[in-house]
Structures are given as structure tokens and as C-alpha cells.
Design brief:
The chain has 42 helices and 17 strands. The chain is α+β, with helices and mostly antiparallel strands and about 850 residues long.
């Protein structure tokens, strides 16, 4: 074919040949550019199904526009019916060729894999899975970029087959276990394959090798690869952990999204050089030295005990505060994926046990998790957390054996206060955790009360398997962000634990919290969730009346399930007696006082929680930033959000709230616009819904009607929904048409929104968000009396009357309905009350939001803007 012209492509030379056909370099004679043409093998051209799949997958690939994905220009066919794909041509070589020269440097490997993961993230967000990630499909361009090739295509040949339901797809050494079994795959199979590539470029070899495909498949499904640290002495432990998580055989145990993998890769890349080069040898040497010191002989033991006695009772040590403790994340040494949760589960429960001791100050889980896998000097950690002693340890599961090494260290002197090694069975998990807690308390010289002693020693269940399932559930429940998927998995694990031991009160309490969270965040707003939350809390209290976690669960049932804030505080006060150092419990107490409008108590709880959890990004974001906003302390709010972002830079919702705070404070849209501009479409933002919801709100404030209508036409959901809003896309469309002056189109859109909201309100009759949106839709239709009835419903709701945090939101929605329905004076009464007291309203949002247009020319409206800071 060299020298011939196909369509408007003149073929120059052959680049390669594989199972999916031949690739040529060609000249695009229309646009005067070089392209790569891939021709489908003739046998597929004769297969209508294969041809259709090729076209479908090529269209999917062409929809991707990303700097790390090969650009697909078009799919076409020759006059004789041979299919071909026109793609961008890149000067460079496949990564597989570079690997032949030897392993890459860690930093170089990291940069390449981050680029690929960014490309995968963009593809996965569009629902496209590659299915054949391998080093041969990664092109290293002469400009130093990595390009992911063959997107949406599955090769075939002696190692692979063309995509077909039930068929094996992929290249064998890079296949995920589910691919190897011929099962249906999703984006997590790409994460596995990228893990294989990362292993390959760091080790210079594949993790699963054999001369026979069958043997490789067996290894993929049944064996663990050699640890990277056993192949290269300079491989950091954190990098090994990342690869290991990618290569979990159970897809549910891997990174669930490319974004999650990117967070770990970027965090690792940004960490100081001293942290990133921490290898297994460097991490284990200090521990081996410590064990040698502890067990080197009777004489040494006597010296250590004597020194310990002096340190425990000397005023100098007490002044340093050895009873203020940070338990660093336990290092997971388990080779078996199914037991990876043990380290996190034991660590979390140990923190809970220690939090029961009033005389200790125990830094909470969130603050210590930031030190995972980092070789930061202990003195620095102690200074950052404000503690005098640190606990570190390792957990390893081998078969049915559980091996735990723990040591308590005086941060000021690096001296050991206590250390122990445990080699037990998996059934001894709680006994180990309980013993460790009691030994730590004794080592820092704290005397336990009888109630505290019982609390540390009492086993929560006699069923070891139930306790293991509980630990696994806790590991999912405490993952950052409490995402819906992790919450649902935690629920299943807690339910399985209770299936084995219905009398397991701690699991009932945990399951109650899960149901409550699903209900409160509107992941599942059905009343059945609230009922189940209360039932599980009651079961926990019935089984263990003195269990502090049961009282916490019942407090949350009052708080989240019934909005009975005073009874919630009563339960939290009981729980606090058993868990005086639980930062999350203090957070709940502050949050409930915020609902009651007890602002001094909110800030007191915030201060206490930040002492116990000084690096909890969510704490600064929610109990700090949100409270400052509603109090109109916008400068403090911005500082709180910046503190949160310094601890969790990739938490996009915090950036959005910082932008909103600046809008409320200064009327400045640039920050919010910039934050949203960096986010992909439909990026999840927790309580704020998605980035698309924020984008349409911004466009509405900016009165960009055409852009607003354009983004609404591509929206893949009928409703933009968050914790505090439920706005149909048709309602936004109606407002956009109003801005354009198209009354007919606006009325039709308002009616579409009304029909949708009528159906939703039958299912969620008590959801104030739906009533607020319906009132606005009815006002837009000119159905004044019906709109005012919705405004009245909002005013009579318990949230409006008794919730100092969300009540102002309802009042603002009510005022908008009144303004739209022509009841200007009552709307202005509500606006004045909100501007004068705690609320989410400011003169700047009054100026920006078109929903206030019907009363904008009212003299009183203008007077309020002037009085509260906006004289224009």
C-alpha cells in the first residue's frame, strides 16, 4: 500500500503489524499533517458484528480529548470495504522499548504513570474502559509526553481477542483476574493493568511471568508477585503499597477510581525527598535495633526498666506530656490482599480504646493518617501534633497467624517506654488490641478507674469471625470522604458480622451510623433508612446499656433521623463519659449546638475537636468554615477553608466553598470560576452534588443564558441535587429562557419542572428541597396561590423553625418564592432578618441572583443593600 492514496491519506511507510491489523504512517493531503492509519484485518471486515464493534469503539475513542490519550480523527473504509482508523502520529517509541534498556528511576516511572492515570481518569469519567493497558500501548513522544494508544480497541491474536461479550480481552501478562476468567470488566481492570505497568517499569520485569500463557493466567488468579522492595533496594515502601493496592485480586479492594490512584501518586510525588526514599530496609532497621535493645539480656532489661521508672515519675517527662499520644498508622506487612484491612482496623480500634481513658489526650485517626508511609522524624510529628509520645507498629497476617509489633516511644528522647511482639491467631485480634491499650496506659503512668478498666478489657463479641468482619467494615467506614460506595460496603460487612453474632452491640451501633449517614446525606432519603437507624441504635443499647458507641448511635438517631437536637445532646453527653477523647464525638456535639444556634458552644467544641484532631481537613471545612460563613465571618471562613485545603489539597468541595465564601464576602466570582474550571464535568462534590451543579449556578449568577442552556442540553441527569438543593434541569432552563426574554419557552420549561416535582413530592412529601423548588416552578407559571402555599409549608416546617443552620436556607428559598409570586414586603421582611442574623445570604448574592429581579427596584431592597454594605 506504500505510495497509494486512501481517501485523502497518502501512505508513506509501514509502522507495524499486530493482531488488530497493520499500521501505516500517512500524509493527510487535506490538512497537510502526518497521521497514523490502522487497518482492520480483512477477516473482520467480512464479519458484520466485528465491523460494528470496531466502529462503535472507534467512535468512543474519538470522543476523548486529553493530552495523554492518542487523538482519533476518524473511522472510514476503503472502496473495497476495508475499515481503517485515522489517528494522530507521534514521533517517539513505545514504553516497552525503553524498559528493555533496564528499570527506570522511581521519579521517572512515577511521572509516566501519573500521565497515564490522568488519561484514564478522563476516559473513565466518560464511561470508556481501555481493557488493554500495557507498556506496548504507551507511546513516549520526543516532547517527553506519554500517550495512551489504542483506546477503546481490544487486540486479538495468540494472546488476545476482539471485544465480545463473554470473551477474554486484553494481553495476558497485563490481564486482571476478572479478565482472565472471561468475566465482564469495568474501569477497575484498567487500574490493575496500570499497576502491572508500574511494577514493570520499576522492576524491569513483569510481575507475572512464564513461557506459557496458561501458567501466567494461573499466577494472576492465585499467586502474589515478588515485592518490589525485594527486587530493588531503593524502592520506597509507599510506592510498593500503591502497586500492591492496584494489584488486589478482588476488584473491590483495588483503587475504585483512577482519581483515587492519582491522589496517592501525586501525594507521594509531592512528599519531601526524605519521605519518598524510605525503603523497607530503612523502616525495619530501627525496629530491629529496638527489639535488640529490649531483649539483649537481663542486664539491659534492668537498665531499661530503671530508666523507665525514672522517666515516668520525673517532673521533666510529665511536663513534656507523655500522656498525650499519637498512634501512627500501623504498617501493613501482609502479603495476602484479603487481610490488608487488618492493619487499619486494629489501628482504628486501638484509637477508640485509648479514647476511653480520660487522663489521656489521644490524637484522632484523621490527623495521624497523613503520616502513612512517610519517614518524617518522630520529633517533627510530635511537634506538629502537639504530643509527648508516639505509638508505631506493624501488622502481618500469614495464613491464620496474626503478627503484631508495637512500641511506645517518648518523642522528646526517642526512648522506648514500652514495646511488645505478638504472634497469635487471627481469632486473637481483640485480645491483642486490648492488651496493647492497657500496656500503653500503664507505660505512661495513668491509673485506670474501674469503669475504664472494664471498658478496655471487655470483648465486644465472642465470635472471632464477626469481629474480623466488623474490623473490615470499620476500614471502609473510616475511608476519607465517606463516599456512598464505601458506606454501602461497610453496611454489608456489619450486616454479615451481625448474621454471625446478633448480640454484637458494637456492630449494631456501627450499622446504625451507616443507615443514618445514608439518610442524612440524601444518598437514600427514604424514611425506612431513619427507621433502621433507630432500630439498630436501640438494639445496641438493649444489648450493652453502658456502651458509649451505642449512646453515640442513639444520639445520631435523634440528630440525623428525627432532628431532635436536645435529646441528641443528652445521648452524646453519656457517650462522652466513656469516650472523652473522641474528636468525632466532639464534632457531633458542636454540630448539634450549631443546629440550636448555641454559637459559643459550637466554637468551644470546635476548639476541643481541633486539639484532638489538628490535621482533620473536614473539621476545618465543616465545623469551622461553614459556621464562620453563616455567622458572616467570611475572612475567618476563608482561612478555615485554606487550612483544610493545606491538609487535603485534592478535596474539591473545599475549594468550591472557599470560592462561595469570597462571593458572599466580596462579590468576587473569579476564585469560584477558576476552581470549577479545573474540575472535570460531573466531578462529585459531596453535599454540593457535582461540579456541573455548581457550574450552572455560576452561569445563572453571571446571567449567561446561552451558555447555561448549552450546558443544560448536555446534562446527563434530570435534576441537580445536593444536601440543600433539588433543582430540575428544566427549572434552570426556564430561568435561562426568562433571561433571554422568551416567555413561551420559559413557561414550557417551568411546566416540565412542575410535572417532575409533582411526581417526586409524592415520594418525598417531607423534603423541603422539593417543596422549595416546586414553589419556584409554580411562581414561574404565575400560579401565585399554589406558590404561596409552598412558601407557607416551608415556614411551618421544623427545619425552618428549629434549625439555626439549615433554617436560614429555607427562609432564603421562601423569600425567593415570595419575591417571584409578587409578595414583595413579606419577602423583604425575610431578607432583612437574614442579613441581620446568622444566614447564608449576603448583599452580594442579592445583587447577583436573578431570582431577586422582581423586587430589585423596590426602595426597601436598595436600602437593605446600602445598609448591609453594598451601595450600588
Amino acid at each position: 500500500m506504500i505510495g497509494t492514496t486512501i481517501s485523502h491519506y497518502k501512505i508513506l511507510e509501514k509502522l507495524g503489524e499486530g493482531g488488530m491489523g497493520v499500521v501505516y504512517k500517512a500524509q493527510d493531503t487535506k490538512l497537510d499533517r502526518l497521521v497514523a492509519l490502522k487497518f482492520l484485518p480483512p477477516e473482520y471486515t467480512r464479519d458484520p458484528d466485528a465491523k460494528q464493534r470496531f466502529i462503535h469503539e472507534a467512535k468512543a475513542a474519538s470522543s476523548l480529548d486529553h493530552p495523554h490519550i492518542c487523538t482519533v480523527y476518524e473511522v472510514d473504509e476503503t472502496p473495497d470495504g476495508q475499515m481503517f482508523l485515522a489517528m494522530a502520529f507521534y514521533e517517539g517509541a513505545p514504553l516497552s522499548e525503553k524498559i528493555k534498556q533496564g528499570p527506570l528511576k522511581v521519579d521517572e516511572a512515577l511521572e509516566m504513570v501519573i500521565q497515564v492515570a490522568e488519561g484514564l481518569q478522563a476516559a473513565h469519567e466518560k464511561g470508556i474502559t481501555h481493557r488493554d493497558i500495557k507498556s506496548g500501548n504507551l507511546m513516549l513522544t520526543e516532547k517527553g509526553q506519554v500517550k495512551l494508544m489504542d483506546f477503546g480497541l481490544a487486540k486479538r491474536g495468540d494472546l488476545t481477542m476482539l471485544t465480545k461479550t463473554g470473551a477474554t480481552v486484553g494481553t495476558v501478562p497485563y490481564m486482571s483476574p476478572e479478565q482472565a476468567r472471561g468475566e465482564k470488566v469495568d474501569h477497575r481492570t484498567d487500574i490493575w493493568s496500570l499497576g502491572v505497568v508500574l511494577y514493570e517499569i520499576v522492576a524491569g520485569r513483569l510481575p507475572f511471568q512464564s513461557a506459557y500463557s496458561e501458567a501466567i493466567v494461573y499466577s494472576i488468579m492465585n499467586e502474589e508477585p515478588a515485592p518490589l522492595t525485594s527486587l530493588r533496594s531503593d524502592v520506597p515502601m509507599e510506592l510498593e503499597r500503591i502497586v500492591k493496592k492496584c494489584l488486589q485480586k478482588d476488584s473491590g479492594s483495588r483503587y475504585q477510581r483512577a482519581e483515587d490512584l492519582l491522589v496517592d501518586l501525586r501525594t507521594f510525588r509531592k512528599s519531601p525527598e526524605t519521605s519518598r526514599v524510605r525503603t523497607r530496609a530503612q523502616m525495619e532497621t530501627p525496629r530491629s535495633k529496638r527489639r535488640w535493645i529490649l531483649f539483649s539480656g537481663i542486664a539491659a532489661m534492668i537498665i531499661i526498666i530503671a530508666a523507665l521508672g525514672v522517666s515516668l515519675f520525673s517532673p521533666k517527662v510529665l511536663k513534656q506530656g507523655v500522656n498525650s499520644i499519637a498512634v501512627l498508622p500501623f504498617q501493613n506487612l501482609s502479603a495476602e490482599g484479603p487481610h490488608a484491612y487488618f492493619a487499619a482496623g486494629l489501628h482504628d480500634e486501638l484509637l477508640t480504646q485509648l479514647s476511653k481513658v480520660a487522663a489521656l489526650t489521644v490524637i484522632s485517626r484523621t490527623s495521624v493518617m497523613g503520616y502513612t508511609g512517610k519517614n518524617i522524624p518522630l520529633k517533627q510529628i510530635a511537634t506538629e501534633l502537639g504530643v509527648g509520645s508516639l505509638v508505631e507498629g506493624t501488622v502481618q497476617v500469614v495464613g491464620v497467624r496474626l503478627r503484631v509489633n508495637v512500641q511506645l516511644i517518648d518523642a522528646a528522647t526517642d526512648a522506648h517506654l514500652w514495646a511488645e511482639s505478638y504472634d497469635r491467631t487471627l481469632d486473637d485480634a481483640f485480645a491483642i488490641q486490648s492488651d496493647v491499650a492497657q500496656r500503653i496506659v500503664a507505660a505512661v503512668g495513668v491509673a485506670l478507674g474501674s469503669t475504664e478498666q472494664r471498658g478496655l478489657a471487655a470483648a465486644p463479641t465472642a465470635n472471632a469471625e464477626a469481629y474480623r468482619l466488623y474490623l473490615q467494615g470499620r476500614e471502609y467506614w473510616t475511608r476519607p470522604g465517606r463516599l456512598r460506595q464505601n458506606t454501602e460496603i461497610a453496611q454489608q460487612l456489619f450486616e454479615r458480622a451481625l448474621g454471625l453474632d446478633p448480640g454484637f452491640a458494637l456492630a449494631h451501633a456501627a450499622l446504625s451510623e451507616v443507615h443514618g449517614w445514608m439518610y442524612w446525606l440524601r444518598y437514600d432519603p427514604s424514611p425506612v433508612r431513619a427507621v433502621r437507624q433507630r432500630e439498630e441504635a436501640e438494639a445496641a443499647l438493649r444489648l450493652a446499656p453502658d456502651l458509649p458507641q451505642a449512646h453515640t448511635a442513639m444520639g445520631l438517631a435523634h440528630y440525623w433521623g428525627r432532628r431532635d437536637y436536645r435529646r441528641a445532646l443528652e445521648e452524646f453527653a453519656i457517650a462522652l463519659k466513656g469516650l472523652p477523647n473522641d474528636a468525632l464525638l466532639w464534632n457531633y456535639i458542636g454540630a448539634v449546638h450549631r443546629r440550636l444556634g448555641n454559637w459559643d458552644k459550637v466554637f468551644a467544641a470546635f476548639e476541643k475537636a481541633t486539639q484532638l484532631d489538628p490535621r482533620d481537613a473536614y473539621l476545618f471545612y465543616d465545623l469551622g468554615g461553614h459556621t464562620y460563613i453563616i455567622m458572616h465571618r467570611y475572612a475567618d471562613a476563608v482561612r478555615a477553608f485554606e487550612r483544610s485545603l493545606s491538609l487535603a489539597p485534592d478535596n474539591h468541595v473545599v475549594g468550591v466553598f472557599k470560592g462561595l465564601a469570597l462571593v458572599l464576602w466580596q462579590g468576587q466570582l473569579d476564585t469560584l470560576r477558576a476552581v470549577l474550571g479545573r474540575l472535570p464535568a460531573d466531578a462529585p462534590l459531596g453535599e454540593r452534588g457535582t461540579s456541573s451543579a455548581e457550574q450552572v449556578s455560576l452561569l445563572f449568577w453571571e446571567r449567561q443564558a446561552d451558555s447555561l442552556l448549552q450546558i443544560l442540553t448536555t446534562a446527563r441527569v434530570p435534576v441537580f441535587e445536593g444536601t440543600t438543593f433539588f433543582l430540575p434541569t428544566s427549572l434552570y432552563a426556564a430561568w435561562a429562557h426568562q433571561l433571554r426574554g422568551d416567555r413561551t419557552a420559559a413557561r414550557a420549561a417551568f411546566d416540565s419542572a412542575r410535572v417532575l416535582l409533582d411526581s417526586v413530592i409524592r415520594e418525598l412529601p417531607d423534603d423541603w428541597r422539593v417543596h422549595a423548588a416546586r414553589g419556584l416552578a409554580l411562581a414561574g407559571l404565575g400560579r401565585r396561590d399554589e406558590a404561596l402555599r409552598e412558601a407557607s409549608w416551608l415556614q411551618q416546617s421544623v427545619v425552618y423553625r428549629e434549625d439555626a443552620l439549615q433554617g436560614p436556607q429555607l427562609a432564603e428559598e421562601r423569600a425567593q418564592i415570595l419575591a417571584q409570586a409578587g409578595d414583595a414586603e413579606v419577602a423583604l421582611d425575610e431578607i432583612e432578618r437574614l442579613l441581620a442574623g446568622p444566614s447564608w445570604l449576603s448583599v452580594h448574592t442579592l445583587r447577583l441572583d436573578p431570582r431577586w429581579d422582581p423586587i430589585r427596584d423596590q426602595p426597601r431592597f436598595k436600602a437593605l443593600l446600602k445598609k448591609y454594605g453594598f451601595d450600588k
